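User: I'm putting together notes for a lab meeting next week and I want to include a structural view of one of the chains we've been expressing. I don't have a solved structure, so I'd like a prediction I can at least talk through. The sequence is below, exactly as it appears in our construct file.
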Amino acid sequence: MEDSDMHEIKKILFKYAMQGEWNEVVNICNQQPRAYKTEIVASRDTALHVAVSESKESIVEDIV
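Assistant: Thanks for the context. Below is the predicted structure for the 64-residue chain, given as structure tokens.
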């Protein structure tokens, strides 16, 4: 996967995470194995980190 692809995934993950569309985040992580490691915010957190900080336990389980 190219860097430009990962950049696009990063933008999409950020958008869905900020909108609370966690099922979409899980779908992307399932389709793109590297997606769950992608840093989506300036603090270098991943979608997984954001889900943990928002106490989204079932989403965390689905991502990992």
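A couple of points you could mention at the meeting. Helices lie at 3-18, 22-31, 47-53, 57-63. The radius of gyration is 10 Å.

User: Perfect, that's what I needed.
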